[in-house]
Design goal:
By secondary structure, the protein is of the alpha+beta class. The protein folds into three domains: 152 residues, Beta-Lactamase, CATH 3.30.450; 87 residues, Helix Hairpins (Orthogonal Bundle), CATH 1.10.287; 148 residues, Heat Shock Protein 90. Strands 2-1-5-4-3 form a five-stranded antiparallel β-sheet, with helices on both faces. A five-stranded mixed β-sheet has the order 7-9-10-12-11, covered by helices on one side. A two-stranded antiparallel ribbon has the order 6-8. The chain is rod-shaped. Bound molecules: adenosine-5'-diphosphate. The site of adenosine-5'-diphosphate has 22 residues, from helix 8, helix 9 and helix 10.
């Protein structure tokens, strides 16, 4: 495990958090407990010392003996001193034997009628006591003092126990955190490491690499995202391969024609002037197809890189369609096709590039003419709440359902030979889609084999022009 790994960082944070909670908690518990115990004991011996002080009125030994006995019964110890501060009674504190003088400071306090309170440590029996001292009076004259001492050893033992429990809990928390780190490292870092390996393999070009999906959390979604990325890269790679194969194929076909017929002309391999004329026509057609292909490709790549200049303005789609119809009616008539257009007058304008819009409509109508043998082509404009819909519908050969999702890809053709026969390059719809999207629109297609096809464009209404 690396020291800077997420798991170690997380584990250390958890550990710190546990300790940060446990240590102050232990300290507070300790304070509360010892404070409570102290004040309880203090109250008790304070009360007891007052009673003793009140009951003692002479310091004769018989009297004192009785108090010593009494003290043994109460479980607290007493020390009685005379007015010189010399111990005259002791119920069981070895370090203060009878005849010994007590600390003068304490006695001074008693002699000026003040109670004393302190913690006392007996070195001989190694015990700690809480002591309260009170003066003893006879006829309002101080004749000595009494100290009641309660052992606080039990309290210290309990405090010790609390400290030990907190330490134990702390150690337990450390082990718990270590266990947690271990489980986490398996749960979290293993899939991450697997993903790291997989992405490195993908980066090296092994695009068949996949990560196991694992859990349904963020880590799982990351695995899914990596797999999606690999699929996308794979598609991109095969698209690129296909694109280059297509390009060379598309270029090769007209070049072969050009070479062949130019050779035939050069070597006078024609039988009549008519045949020569035919050859020249083919050369012309192929040359213009080649230049259209190169121009389309150039335009498409510019669009894909976002390098195309669009001149946005308020565009009247009725005008756009009419211009496109002017240029296509002759072609339609040649094939015996009719083009209908619902010239609505209340169509709001859209914000787009007028010439590019015409290019889109022209392309769709030309396709409809190209792939329709008989029937009608209808162009319809309609208005929805916030958008304008432009539909180009034909009664042509239709597009198989399985081809529809790929229709807008470069060089995609339904039947490979079919569109070439019709003079297409396979780039038209790719260009249309790019242009539509660059102008904020969307394009969809519905088609039924042998029934016809309908391309639908949706553009948002120009905001200043909503009716
Ligand atoms: P092309 O220049 O070959 O027509 P497009 O990108 O314009 O290329 O169209 C892609 C393919 O979609 C065409 O090859 C054709 O098979 C199909 N297609 C496009 N428009 C129509 C339509 N209106 N009816 C039937 N098929 C169509």
């Amino acid at each position: 495990m690396k020291w800077h790994s997420i798991v170690v960082k997380l584990g250390a944070s958890i550990l710190l958090l546990v300790l940060a909670i446990l240590l102050p908690l232990g300290f507070i518990m300790n304070q509360i407990f010892s404070g409570f115990y102290f004040s309880k004991v203090q109250e008790q011996i304070d009360d007891l010392s007052s009673r003793y002080a009140e009951s003692i009125n002479t310091l004769d030994s018989q009297h004192l003996n009785m108090f010593e006995q009494l003290a043994t019964l109460t479980g607290q110890e007493i020390i009685i001193v005379n007015k010189e501060g010399v111990v005259v009674a002791n119920s069981g504190i070895p370090s203060l034997p009878k005849g010994e003088k007590i600390n003068s400071k304490e006695f001074d306090l008693l002699s000026i009628n003040k109670a004393t309170q302190k913690e006392y440590y007996d070195e001989i029996n190694n015990r700690r006591y809480l002591s309260v001292g009170k003066p003893i009076y006879t006829d309002r004259v101080i004749i000595g003092g009494i100290f009641v001492l309660a052992s606080i050893e039990d309290m210290y033992q309990s405090v010790d126990m609390i400290e030990k429990s907190v330490t134990l809990a702390g150690i337990g928390a450390i082990f718990l955190a270590l266990g947690f780190i271990f489980i986490l490292s398996r749960k979290l870092s293993n899939p991450l490491l697997e993903m790291e390996k997989a992405t490195r393999k993908i980066a090296k070009g092994d695009l068949n690499t996949r990560v196991s999906k694992g859990t349904k959390d963020e880590v799982g979604s990351l695995a899914v995202a990596i797999n999606d990325l690999a699929v996308e890269l794979q598609r991109y790679r095969s698209n690129r391969r296909e694109f280059f194969a297509n390009i060379s194929h598309e270029l090769r076909t007209p070049i072969t024609y050009l070479e062949g017929y130019a050779n035939a002309l050069e070597n006078n391999l024609y039988q009549s002037d008519e045949e020569k004329e035919q050859y020249l026509q083919i050369i012309q057609q192929e040359a213009s197809r080649l230049s259209k292909l190169v121009a389309d490709l150039f335009e498409l790549s510019k669009m894909e890189e976002g390098k195309i200049d669009l001149h946005f303005e308020s565009v009247d789609l009725v005008e756009v369609v009419e211009n496109a119809l002017l240029k296509t009616t002759i072609k339609a008539k040649e094939k015996g096709l009719q083009i209908d257009f619902n010239r609505l007058t209340n169509i709001p304008s859209i914000y787009a590039d007028g010439l590019r819009m015409e290019q889109i409509v022209l392309n769709l109508i030309e396709n409809s003419i190209r792939y329709t043998e008989k029937g009608t082509i209808s162009v319809k404009l309609s208005k929805e709440l916030n958008s304008i819909i432009l539909a180009v519908e034909d009664t042509g050969i239709g597009i198989p359902e399985e081809d529809v999702p790929f229709l807008f890809e470069r060089f995609y053709r339904v039947e490979k030979s079919r569109s070439r026969d019709f003079g297409g390059t396979g780039l038209g719809l790719a260009i249309v889609k790019q242009l539509v999207e660059l102008q904020g629109g969307a394009i969809t297609v519905k088609s039924k084999m042998r029934k016809g096809t309908c391309f639908e464009l949706t553009f948002p209404i120009n905001r200043g022009d909503v009716q």
